[in-house]
């Protein structure tokens, strides 16, 4: 991987991020975090040790098709696992001991804005990935992961590692930077012989406590339905006879066409045409902010307040990854 890439990231890192260190919070109800910035991430200590009988559990909620959920490794020695949403499916890659890298995919649309429970369970030789109790074929390897550096969520920021060489599986690093998780993650816990421990949140960037419903600050009038898209919300005024951001304006009879999202879709396609692979990362970041401000401007369109922020981010940052 070219060094210039890391310099770009480094520049961005320093330009855009301020790390907030947070108090340890064992079992506190506010352990939910909303990842709502283009470079959101968290780091938890200690990492989960994948030993004889135990499980890692994580709840997530997102609208993103492609995004990193969790990653762990041993600091470059050869063991790791990562879990990504890929096209709405859940994909885990794992390398333990002297076994080969194994991959498991669970089909589904786990980017449906609902909460989902991810579990990685180790039982003797078998490591099994499951989401909402749909389990993949176990990965069979007698070794165990026992010196994990930390548990990462959101994406892998090079800010928390001194060198790019210290990542066991740089493919995860690269894919995560291009597919930063946006949504909410909660209740990360390690279960070992029935005993539950919660890791300490060492650092978090671009997150906020809770998974607040944006509909609380958007009151739709005249019976319009507020649609919670996690990061933002919009009013669906369908059938109310009203339009506007809050369904406050009467639809005049002259305009016969019902509100549509066609022109917005067209705008989205304009961005999709650009080949993100050809844009240097810094340029890509500019694209993101350009799109963000553009979306602010077209936030109200044909009587609907649209949430395109996540879509735009996913479009520009969500580069080709395959299950
Ligand atoms: C989270 O909750 C705990 C107690 O339940 C409280 O002590 C702590 O200040 C809260 N933290 C935040 C960031 O709200
Ligand atoms: C998942 O979907 C792929 C194709 O979309 C299919 O080949 C595969 O058998 C499916 N796996 C399961 C476990 O249903
Ligand atoms: C491990 O998985 C295999 C294949 O699903 C199964 O046959 C075996 O019984 C499992 N072993 C344990 C200890 O769960
Ligand atoms: C719109 O037109 C219909 C008939 O086409 C009429 O019944 C209705 O009262 C009109 N509504 C308004 C708000 O003018």
Automatic annotation (TrEMBL):
CDD domains: LamG. Keywords: Disulfide bond, EGF-like domain, Signal. Disulfide bonds join 184-211. It holds the Pfam family Laminin_G_2. It comes from the Eukaryota. Belongs to the EGF domain peptide family. PANTHER family: AXOTACTIN, PIKACHURIN-LIKE PROTEIN. This is Neurexin-1-like. It comes from Actinia tenebrosa (Australian red waratah sea anemone). The lineage of its organism: Eukaryota, Metazoa, Cnidaria, Anthozoa, Hexacorallia. The gene is LOC116304461.
